[in-house]
Structure to design on (590 residues):
């Protein structure tokens, strides 16, 4: 009896421990990683952490408007651990959700992020204020930035191309652009050219040129100061000898320092569109455009489908809209058009619209001209381009009679099969053509056709069950196998890189290292950065030395994509990465 009471007491105590651990008080706080310097004009990450809850909250970002806040996603980072001490089992459940926001630092100095209001599960909470120092990057002649506009004056709605050229004369690591024009609410911003990289000779020196273009479309008239664009980058300033924690020898490590350069400020004058002579068809196109149309077939009967294809060409096609066919005189009255429209396509500098139309009567002789109104910025006037009319031949619809279906030469046939030259006619008459097709279970079992019909599905079912039993797998088993083999796959990729390609293909090493972290720790490899790899290794192994060295190599390889001639990669780099993977594998758990 005493033993029974003692066990009841122990069970109640364990239950209370579990309950208290799982019912922790909900707490909301803010955090900024200050382990790395934050520089003026650059982006940094603000975390809103909710302890005691595993769902996102609603954050009032109004106090952060000066830092241009943008959501960077979030995730449930809850964890559960079980410990057994002296036979007593304790379960510790930590519920946590982390929301990430990207902020842009202003001028150098100490800034204070105020307390933010966060609503969680219908209740309001306040975060702690966060103070951080914003450093001013140095200046150097090893970087150069140029920004240009395709024109200094334009009309409202006219596309202007902003071109950015970044010249690099040294080995650089991470870099960030700050281009005020791209965050100005007075413009629509569209992509034009992807980032391109070239080797060039500038100022009698070899340099790497990174260039890209964006399209700016002013929303309204006015004079705009677009400010001075800038770029900050980690520039290699030398090498330091440091003890490697995994080997008994020394190796050289690149030392980086943050520098920034600015381009000349840009200004743009935007003129209003004239109201005089504005055509009714005008909906905002500015530039120079062409329009043409084609139809097939051009000979049809009333109600037959005709495919109408409209091609619009111009210097900027994104704002081009569907032509309003239903408002064109002679088109809406004489043709039937569906209300649904297919999505246009862009091919070879043309935006192509396709519509099916059907002649409503046989009086139709043509598809009328289709207008396109736009403002020609070079001429300073409105222009209406039109397609050429398309000639049609429309015939009345023929009504089919019974005679048309059976055939003009139809005559009753006898019992013998009679070939009919035209139309459809019966070949048999009288009960002689009837056959008894009553279903019989005995005939179904013995008939070869029925046997194949019911036996085949049964055989497939038995075969699939047998195959499933032999190779039974679950998503969890697949994930465990992927994690278990991640190291071997990464080592094979790394050792498979030819030595001759190490200097010019740094991305091969970085890709293999990120792929290992992704497969080993269930991450998306394509979105991992050097910092993500470091943080994941620390979280899973607690080995900050290995994590930092892993991050350094990934950063060097990423930087090598833009300045390959400055990187010193050889087979020892591969060997070091392999050793790091072995250490991480040993210190983490499958």
């Amino acid at each position: 009896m005493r033993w029974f009471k003692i066990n009841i007491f122990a069970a109640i105590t364990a239950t209370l421990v579990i309950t208290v651990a799982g019912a922790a008080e909900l707490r909301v706080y803010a955090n900024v990683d200050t382990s790395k310097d934050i520089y003026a004009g650059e982006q940094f990450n603000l975390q809103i952490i909710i302890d005691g809850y595993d769902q996102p909250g609603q954050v009032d970002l109004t106090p952060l408007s000066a830092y241009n806040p943008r959501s960077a996603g979030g995730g449930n980072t809850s964890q559960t651990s079980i410990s057994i001490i002296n036979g007593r089992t304790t379960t510790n459940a930590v519920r946590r959700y982390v929301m990430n926001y990207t902020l842009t630092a202003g001028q150098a100095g100490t800034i204070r992020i105020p307390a933010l209001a966060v609503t969680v599960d219908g209740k309001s909470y306040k975060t702690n204020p966060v103070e951080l120092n914003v450093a001013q990057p140095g200046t150097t002649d090893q970087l150069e930035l140029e920004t240009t506009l395709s024109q200094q004056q334009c009309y409202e709605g006219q596309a202007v191309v902003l071109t950015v050229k970044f010249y690099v004369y040294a080995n650089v690591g991470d870099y960030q652009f700050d281009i005020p024009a791209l965050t100005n609410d007075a413009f629509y911003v569209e992509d034009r050219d992807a980032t391109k990289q070239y080797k060039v000779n500038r100022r009698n020196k070899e340099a790497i040129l990174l260039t890209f273009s964006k399209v700016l479309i002013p929303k309204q008239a006015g004079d705009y100061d677009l400010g001075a664009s800038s770029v900050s980058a980690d520039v290699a300033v030398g090498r330091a000898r440091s003890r490697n924690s995994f080997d008994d020898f020394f190796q050289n490590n690149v030392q980086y320092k943050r520098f920034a350069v600015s381009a000349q400020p840009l200004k743009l004058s935007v003129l209003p569109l004239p109201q005089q002579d504005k055509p009714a068809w005008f909906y905002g196109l500015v530039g120079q455009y062409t329009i043409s149309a084609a139809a097939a077939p051009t000979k049809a009967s009333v109600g037959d489908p005709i495919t109408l294809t409209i091609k619009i060409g111009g210097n900027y096609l994104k704002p081009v809209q569907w032509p309003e066919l239903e408002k064109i005189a002679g088109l809406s009255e004489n043709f039937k058009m569906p209300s649904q429209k297919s999505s246009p396509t862009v091919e070879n500098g043309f935006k192509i619209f396709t519509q099916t139309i059907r002649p409503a009567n046989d009086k139709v002789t043509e598809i009328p001209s289709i207008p396109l109104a736009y403002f020609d910025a070079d001429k300073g006037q409105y222009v209406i381009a039109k397609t050429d009319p398309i000639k049609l031949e429309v015939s009345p619809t023929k009504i089919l009679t019974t005679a048309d279906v059976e055939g003009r030469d139809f005559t009753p046939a006898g019992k013998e099969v009679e070939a009919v030259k035209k139309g459809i006619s019966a070949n048999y008459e009288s009960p002689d053509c009837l056959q008894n097709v009553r279903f019989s279970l005995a005939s179904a079992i013995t008939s070869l056709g029925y046997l194949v019909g019911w036996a085949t599905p049964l055989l497939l079912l038995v075969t699939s069950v047998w195959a499933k039993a032999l190779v039974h797998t679950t998503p969890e088993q697949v994930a465990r196998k992927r994690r278990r083999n991640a190291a071997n796959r990464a080592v094979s990729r790394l050792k498979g890189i030819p030595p001759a390609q190490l200097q010019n293909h740094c991305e091969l090493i970085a890709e293999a290292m990120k792929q290992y972290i992704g497969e080993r720790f269930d991450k998306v490899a394509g979105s991992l950065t050097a910092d993500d790899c470091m943080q994941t290794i620390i979280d899973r192994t607690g080995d900050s030395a290995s994590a930092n060295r892993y991050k350094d190599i990934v950063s060097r390889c990423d930087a090598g994509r833009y300045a390959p001639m400055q990187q010193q990669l050889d087979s020892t780099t591969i060997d070091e990465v392999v050793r790091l993977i072995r250490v991480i594998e040993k210190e983490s758990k499958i």
